[in-house]
Amino acid sequence: MQTKQEIIQWLEQNRSDFIDMADRIWEYAEISHREFKSSKLQADYLEKEGFKIEWEIGGLQTAFTAVWGSGKPVIGFLGEYDALEGLSQKRLPVKEPIQEGAPGHGCGHNLLGTGVLASTVAVKRWLENTGTQGTVRYYGCPAEENTYGKTFMARAGAFNDLDAAFNYHPGSINMASKSSAVGVNDIKFRFFGRTAHAGGSPHLGRSALDAVELMNVGVNYLREHVTSNVRIHYAITHGGDLPNVVPAEAEVWYFIRAHKPQELEEVTNRVRKIAEGAAMMTETRLEEHFRSACSAVLSNHTLADLQYEAMKLVGPMEFTAEEIAYAEKINSGYPAENLEAFYTMAREFKSPPEVAKFLEENYGAALIAINLPPLDEGKIETGSTDVGDVSQITPISMLNTACFPTALSGHCWGTVAASGSSIGHKGMMHAAKIMALAAVDCFTNPEHLHKARAEFEKATKDYPYRSPLPAYVQPPRYPNPYK
User: Fold this and answer.
1) Helix, strand, or coil (residue 404)
2) Are residues 235 and 287 in the same domain?
3) Is 199 in a helix, a strand, or coil?
C-alpha cells in the first residue's frame, strides 16, 4: 500500500472489520467513563496491528494511546466511544427502544471512534510500506458527552508533542469545518439549610430549595446581559424529598458556555455571585463543586482545506434507494421545522453558486451525498466539545460526514437508528479515507505542517493554552465489571 488509491482500496477491502467494530460498540452503548468493553475492543485490535498501548491517560480509566513509528512528524487521531443515557433504540426507522431508559449511541461515537481508528491503521500501513519516517498515534478518548475527557488528557500533556491532529464527527453533510465552538464550565451548586415542618413550624426552617430557585431566577435575569455567544442552562438535581418538609439540602447543576476564555470566566463569576446572593437571602450555606470544563474550538483552516482536497480524490458518497427510504422514514418522525432548520443553516453558508444551486434543487432531501468545501468560516457553534482543548495545543481539523438524515438535531433516537445502519457505516468509511489521505499529505509534504503551525501560532499567541480545570478536579473512577 503505497499510493493514495491503494489506501482507499485497503480501507474498502477491510470495511467489514471496521463495520463489525462499530456495530459492537453500538451494541455495548457504554456511557461516559464506563466504556470498558468499547475501549478494550479498540486497544486489542490496535495492539494486534503492532501499536504500543498505554492506558489511563490523564487518570481516565478508559483512556488510552496507541503509538506506531518513530520521530517527527507526529500526527494524532482522536477517537471517541461513549454513548448517551436514555437513548436506547432498535435498528428501525421508527422510535422503538431496545430497553426503555437504557443508553444508546445518539451522537454516533461508535462510528466516530471506529472511523478514526480505521484511518490511523491505514496511515500506519502506508508508513510501514513506504518506509516513511514519522509517528502515528491514536487516542482513545472517553467521556466526550460529559465534555471533558480530552481536557484531563490535555492537562496531563498527552497532546503536547503533536505536529497536527485529525478527527471527525458524524453529521448530515460532508464538510471539513472552519467554524468554532464555545467553551464550557460544568459546575454544581449545593445549598445547605435547616429542616423543619413546612406546615407546623416553617419559620424555623431555612430552605435550600428556596436558595436554588432564587439562584435560577437571578441567572435567568442575567441572560439579558450577556452576548449572543453565551449559553447558560441548568437542571435541579435535588430539590428535597417531601413537600411538607423544609429541605435542608438542594442542588442545581449548571453548564455555562462562552467563546472567549475571559468571557467564560467573567460570566461564571457572575453566576457565582448570584449563587452567593441566593445563599445570603435564604441564610443557607453554599458549596461549589466544579466538575469539569473544556475550551473553545480553534479550527485550523490549512488542515480543513487539505481534507477538502482529499474529498475530491475520494469522490462523493452513494446511497441506495433502500437507504434513502430508511432516512426519509426517520425524518418523518420529526417536526417539519427540523428539516427547515437544516436547509436554513445550509443557505447561511458562504456557498459557491454551484453548491447553493444544488442545495436549493435538492431541498428536503433526506440524505446529502456530495462533498462540500469548508463553508462555515466565522461561524461560532454554541455547543461544546473537549476537542477544543486539543485545538488550543496543536493544529486540528474537524471533519463532518453524512451519517445521519437531514432532519435530526443530534442526541435523539433517530441518530441511534442511523448510527447502527449502513448509512452510518458509509459515512464512517468516507471519513476514514479523507482523514488518511490528508494525513499522508502531511507526512509527504512538510510545507502543509509548517503552514498549519504558522496559522495556529498566530491565532494563539495572545492566548496560550491554560487548562480550564482547577488542579483539585480529578476524573471519576468506577469499578470495571469485566476484570
Assistant:
1) coil
2) yes
3) coil
Cβ atoms of residues 294 and 388 within 8 Å: yes
Residue where the block lists cell 453558486? 353
The residues, ordered by sequence, that sit 6+ positions from 119 with a Cβ below 8 Å of its Cβ are: 11, 77, 166, 431, 432, 433, 435, 436, 439
Q: Does residue 477 lie in a domain region?
A: no
| Co-location of 172 and 320 in the same domain | yes
Per-residue confidence of the chain (483 residues) as pLDDT tens digits?
789 999 999 999 999 999 999 999 999 999 999 999 999 999 999 999 999 999 999 999 999 999 999 999 999 999 999 999 999 999 999 999 999 999 999 999 999 999 999 999 999 999 999 999 999 999 999 999 987 899 999 999 999 999 999 999 999 999 999 999 999 999 999 999 999 999 999 999 999 999 999 999 999 999 999 999 899 999 999 999 999 999 999 999 999 999 988 999 999 999 999 999 999 999 999 999 999 999 999 999 999 999 999 999 999 999 999 999 999 999 999 998 888 878 777 777 777 787 778 877 888 899 999 999 998 888 888 889 999 999 999 999 999 999 999 999 889 999 999 999 999 999 999 999 999 999 999 999 999 999 999 999 999 998 899 999 999 999 999 999 887
Tell whether omega for the bond before 243 is within 30 degrees of 0, i.e. cis. Answer: no
Which amino acid is located at 7 in the chain? I
Range of the domain at 199: 183-293
Any idea what the CATH number is for the domain that residue 190 is in?
Answer: 3.30.70.360
Same domain, 126 and 66: yes
